[in-house]
Design goal:
By secondary structure, this protein is mainly alpha-helical. Helices cover 66% and strands 0% of the residues. It has 2 domains: 20-74, Homeodomain-like (Arc Repressor Mutant, subunit A, Orthogonal Bundle); 77-201, Tetracycline Repressor, domain 2, CATH 1.10.357.
Length: 206
């Protein structure tokens, strides 16, 4: 099956209004295919087949393969990174890192791994990743730090600091660099052995 490049364009068509539920089915199919074959081998035909829809349905929504993947990447992580207010910084940390572990082990996590090697050659994908998944998680962590500051558990300035970035780093490294399993037990270890000691060293009341 031929691979459709991002330069192959079909004109958008009129017709019936888009069905949001079908959009989700298509995006789920894209994630599965990205995890299986990567960005380079992904085709519009394959997406239509995997999603169980006609090619016209795909082209009504996206004009190119890059448009399709960029849109999907931009929507990633919104559910997994939903802010949780447990009432304490420690509770929030545990909940958030468990959510991050759930993402790592989801179709979205597998698709992210598959896309990383393609981003350096496709600036639009890299930008979608920064504005989508990265922005979602940054915002969620920022909300957690703001709540902790309001409760008096930490001082000002944690959001965006090196200390804040270090909290989730072990999970990201194990996932994307080491290639080792990332599970809930590992998330607990990160909280107990990395996050809490680091935060206490920097004056957190946790």
């Amino acid at each position: 099956m031929a691979v459709l490049s991002s330069t192959d364009v079909r004109p958008s068509r009129g017709g019936r209004p888009r069905d949001p539920s079908r959009d989700e089915v298509i995006r789920a199919a894209i994630l599965r295919l990205l995890a299986d074959v990567g960005y380079g081998a992904l085709t519009m035909d394959a997406v239509a087949s995997e999603a169980g829809v006609g090619k016209a349905t795909i082209y009504r929504r996206w004009r190119t393969k890059e448009d399709l993947v960029v849109d999907t990447v931009s929507e990633l992580n919104a559910a997994e990174a939903e802010p949780v207010d447990t009432g304490t910084l420690e509770g929030d940390l545990r909940a958030l890192l468990h959510s991050l572990v759930a993402l790592v082990n989801s179709p979205g996590g597998a698709a992210t791994q598959a896309l990383l090697s393609s981003m350096q050659h496709h600036p639009a994908l890299a930008e979608a990743f920064r504005r989508g998944p990265m922005a979602v998680w940054r915002s969620t962590f920022d909300e957690m730090w703001v709540r902790a500051e309001q409760r008096g558990e930490i001082g000002p300035g944690f959001s965006g600091s090196v200390v804040a970035e270090a909290i989730g780093a072990p999970i990201v490294q194990r996932w994307l660099v080491n290639g080792e399993p990332v599970d809930e037990a590992f998330a607990e270890t990160v909280v107990d052995s990395v996050a809490i000691p680091l935060l206490r060293f920097h004056g957190a009341r946790i």
